[in-house]
Predict the 3D structure of the following.
Amino acid sequence: MKLLSQHSNLRRQASAACIALMLAGTGVVSAPAFAAQQTQAEREAEDQRRSRQTLSERSGRALNDALNLANEEPPQFQQAIARLDQLLSRSIPPYDEATALEIRGNFYFQVENYQGAIRDFRRALELDVLPSAREKNLIRGIAQLYYQTEQFDAAIRFMQDYVRDFPQDAEASDYFIIAGAYAQKDDYRGAMGPAERALQLDQAAGNRTENYYGLLNLIYSELNMSAKRRDLLEQAVNFFPNTESYWSQLAFLYNEANRNADALAVLELAYKAGLITDGGKIRTLAQFYYDQNNPFRGAKLLSSEMQAGNVERNLSNLELLAQLWAAAREQDEAIAILAEAAPKRSDGSLYYQLGQSYLADERYQLAIRNLREAIRRGGLTEREIGNAYVLIGTALFQEDSDSAESRAAARREFVRAGRYPGQGATSRSWVTYIDTIESTLAQQREVELRQAIERKEREITRCESILDVIELGGRTEVPDEQIASCRELVAQVEEGGETAESLVRAERGLDDEEAEDASEETEAPAEEG
């Protein structure tokens, strides 16, 4: 089963993470050009010298005016930019110019003039006069602006040059920008290395930045690197236990690797922690219980969540619930849910299941009614229709097999079933069985009839003897009532023309002709093929 596919969400998270990182920056920009060809000691000395630089008085006043305008409520960024335009139009020292460009670039960013911000930040870097910390911030700011303006190749080049030239200064966020830019270009292979490095540096610093896990999770997913993704998500659920998507994705990966018990354990933990509240994911958990041979637990879960209103009581969910109850051998529960679900479905498939359940529960009339409704609604295969007739015949027979009428009705259904594919053998077996019963009963009736006739013949002979004795003046010990009965019987024979057989048939309500066959229909089921 597919539990989750969240690539688009992860992609949005990766983009949002990079933008958030940019907004958190100071806004200063690009690579310390002075540092690349110097020793560590030389770089530190140069950096100290640069840090001691101060603004000229005129530049300081202009910058202060601009900052005051920007700090008003509401901020007056355009006026602040205009004030810095005036300053930069003059000839001022390089440090003053770089600082003014740095600040104006920030103002451009605030008014969403990103190209203006990039231009000012790059020019400030080119002047090569700012302390290294500010230049590093400018580099990151430029890369982030390239990212935000979807100039991903430029963002990648800018940050790659920086981390290559100054690996000792590179931070996790620098690699994260590179990885995010590659991901935005759908170059996940290129994104993987920087993303892994970003996470490695973040962990080494004792941090747990969730965006780094999210981006790397996306990359592994796009590259179908399930093993690496599982390892990553196993960390993520421990570090960010309240992020439900990590639990669901990890369960999906376990399931994909046929580690179904682990998948269930992960989802169960998330559910017990109150993280899984979505109806679809609750349904998935119930299915996992079924897959792990615990349908009762799945049924209890789904039923309670339906009652709580967290899972919709729709046809699909009701069908699953009925399946779970049936697998748990909770027949009454399964029947109740099927009875609720069957009318919601346009075809007869659920009535077909319901009829079978009623038959298994020996509720024969309900079985017959629902099976006939299944056939009426349609949607069954030819084989299922034939089986439905077999089941109807079975219900009729089981309900009252002692009744000739029930046996005849059942036989008709079995004959009808034999006209459908796959039911010929079953149909013939039942028809043969019923015909054998009828034949046996007919033979028994015939034997009983012969025996009754013989008894009647002996009774007639005995009565004739008694009456002969009386007629000759003899005495008998036969009671008067029997004598009267004998006179009536002999009269029926001698005067009425009755025979022992006709008298017996009359007593049994049979015609003079041979008794009719008990079966109302003698048609045999057709042979298959």
Notes: The chain is about 70% helix and 0% strand. Residues 1-34, 512-522 have pLDDT under 50 and may be disordered. The CA atoms of residues 230 and 364 lie 52 Å apart.
